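Each field is listed here:
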Amino acid sequence: MPVDIALHPLGTPVHGNHPDAQVAPAIQHQVALADATPSADFVVPKPGAKLVLVATAKLRVDIRLTADAAVLNAGTSAMVLGANERVSFFLTPGSYRLLTAVYA
């Protein structure tokens, strides 16, 4: 039950953050991350970025700063990804890692 991950820049200061800058090339991405496998580190530049996730099945996801990655626990996370739905999160500058678990 993989999940695709893409980190996109925010919109331009002239146009604000709407519409989202998803037409811009991704800053970073990871394709088909396996369930229960920690992601690569995603480095978010200033002023922040948008993390976009698309899962093939209903999953729980835990997103934490890389420094706190030891406590990643997707099984107890309240964040849920629907199957084949685009879900996005705003992240402040820093380095992040995520983990998914089957929704049960």
The chain has one domain: 3-102. The chain is about 0% helix and 45% strand. Residues 3-102 form one domain. The mean pLDDT is 87.
